[in-house]
Amino acid sequence: MTRNAFLFVLFILIQTVCKAQTYDGSANSLIAMAGKYQSLHQPEKLYLQLDKNTYGLNDTLWFKAYLLNAFTLHASATSNVVYIEISDENNVVRLRREMLVTNGLGSGSIPLNGLDFPEDGYTLRAYTRWMRNFDESLVFKKQFFVSDITKDKWLINFNSAVKDNTAQLHLQLTGTDKKPVANQQVLLGVKQDEAILRRNKPQVTSLNGELDLAVTVRNKPEPVYASLHRGSYDDDAPVYKFPVIYNRSEKTDVQFMPEGGYLVAGINSVVGFKAIGEDGNSVNLSGNIINAGTNEVVASFTSAHKGMGSFAFMPQANLNYKAVVNLPDGSKKEYPLPEIKATGTVLNVINNGLSDSVIVKITASPGLSGRYIIVGQSKGLVCFAARVKLDNNTQTLKAPKSAFASGIVRFTLLNQQLETLNERIVYIDHHDNLQLSVTADKPFYTPQDSIALHLQVTDGEGNPVQGTFSMSVTNEPQLNNNTGNPNMVADILLASDLKGNIEDPNYYFAGHEKALDDLLLTQGWTGFDWKDLVKPEKKLHFAAQQDISISGKVTNLFNDPVKNAKVQLRLKIPPDSMDTKTDSKGNFAFKGLLQIESPVVFIKARNAAGNSSTYGIDFYGYWPEWPSFSKNRLQLPWYVNVDTIKLKIADTIIRDAEKLDKLMGVNGKMLNEVEIKEKKVIPGSHNLNGPGNADQVIDEHDIAKTGKITLLELLKKQVKGFRVTPRGYFINTEPLVKVGGDGTGQPEGGFVFNGVLASHADDIMGALTSLTSDDIKGIEVMSIGYTSAYEMGLLPAWQIAHLIFPVPFIEITTRDGQSPFKKKTSADVVYKTVLTIQPKQFYRPAYPVKNAIQAASDQRTTIHWEPNITTDKDGKATVTFYAAGQPATYTITTEGSNMNGNVGSAVQKITIK
Q: Which is nearest to 776 in space by CA: 809, 804, 753, 805?
């Protein structure tokens, strides 16, 4: 039986024996209580393999999802629905989708429309509703970059220095040919957290393409961004946006973390340390621990990897200590050490990779030699527990590694009241991850060759493994390597159990045991409070989701539930309708929705006579409950501070494009050039027609030209035909809102704020005069060709029946995303859905006969994507495809699981000559 199989059996046994256990002070009762708690709080882990890290404009992102039980790493039986979000560097969600998974597996694709995903850095997150009950570290996260590499692209060599909150920025602009961009007018501006630090003003580059700028930055954690416009505001020339990264040595954060949590006088301790620069990245440094009274050096330290390291130190009672750190710029700075406790316990854990046991040493101050409990957890399950009586204030135990699965093990020292005294995490490696090997049927290939790759999967002992795997073959320009993205092994076994950012997590699985131990000394981790075991059980807030559904409650004017009301759901894409009735409490649900490809669905509630005028609908799990995650880490665009490797990659892409143009000019018929005007899209808009589909779109660029004015004045200036009369608000001759003699308003069309229709004249006037242009992200006008979705979705049935001409609507998107109007939804509603992701077949061209034009036109960077590979009883599978049309080196990334406790990752190369 493998260790993971043993853990699975242990997990099942714990669930069956601990139903009525209470804590009686024994280790066995503690294990049983922990098992009961964990059986009710089974977290999930989710991993997505993406086909690559860098995408082009209008590219497609392909992925495979693996949803696992966090305890056993078997397929999760808790959830069947996964949510996927992509957000930009300002944490604005650009896309949200949901996907059904079966037996923990799912795959799909996301088109990266150039309008929604312009050149920038993005973060993909994936989670289940159930995962929101636990720490954010369990949410899957991966960064990627969308690049637009063209011949006329500018390269920006950028550096900055900050002194007394004044940033001195120096830029040198060159073309991809490395020639300076001389005597060029540009607009250069700087923002921090939406506050304008320097407005875009014209500047002219020097003969060397240089620009200099001084700007005062705020003493805030939010990043500073610079934007550089080529030409003027009215030009359609490109805009370059990049973070202003600076590191003041005096702002370096150095933290010291004693093993087990505390320094105790008279007891030798291991102290971990971690240094982070102002930009959030690690800083390597050195220093000394000084007796503040005598200036004697009592310990020294030097970071070993990514600003982390450790040293031994025995503090003495009634003495003060300080750390004197040698900073990267040569200066020195003093940092405090953690408080030294007069008495207490120290937990020291020694994890020698060659030993079959973990050494656990507990040391207590004189007078604290009572009874304690030491507990070891693996993947959330208690696998080791012992009662400890300290003889001579110390005790050493051996915890057999065979009791734990590979991964993070958490040791906790508790007193008899289940108070946590000390904790320490270590990494146990049984070298039992799946071994993935890919071999090609030839030593090398030529362009357009047929390629066969043979996958062999074994366990740690060389036995064949049946499992499910995914493979990407890329000719990926590694302009943004994203080394912060862990592979499947590093994510499932390490990163998902730790809090905070881990730089280059894959590094720790290449035999760097000391660096891994330093990481675990200094990184926060996830887990529960042991005192929660004796507290009354609490129901978790977010229920697990087994299917895609829409549910809610129908109420009357008195807010009483309406039973037996007829509720109809109508889908536009794919065309479909469903009917149901409310139960005795007014609840209804449409379950088992397999496919939703329309951004809205229409829902109606009626009584037996077909009347709905007094009904309202409240939805369960509606979109305002979407989570808010921690801020995304900055990604430097590929065109900033380009090194020789990136420049060579860019040159190759540009040359290939020119070669294709030349071949098409000689051998093919070139189409007449057509000017394509970029469609404006308002991020976060609730436009019922879809992003940018309106008769007029006013974006932030347009709004910025007006200065700070009221929303009413903004509409007058920017919306074509908008006017205000004593009779109401109009677009040309068509009324938005008519105002009666008593001052009340009746919407004909209307003002829609973040998806909510305003229905009272006083509310409308209040919003138009209180909101300013600074509050507005965008305005979309539906006056001619885009009104029907709003008429059907927002107007009552009686009004729709009497419409003769289209009525206008103005969709207003505010920065805070909140509506100024809060009211119950009517009985005829538009429900904003989350579109479902459907599995699609990856297109793979075939070349039975090689062709020069086809070869030149085949510019794929994802050469092949195979999400559903199943190995046979011999652990084998074969994948076939055709090479693209250019010589290259392909990267083959294969990942997957046996869905029975083990995962694996492998990266290999093949050459196209």
A: 753
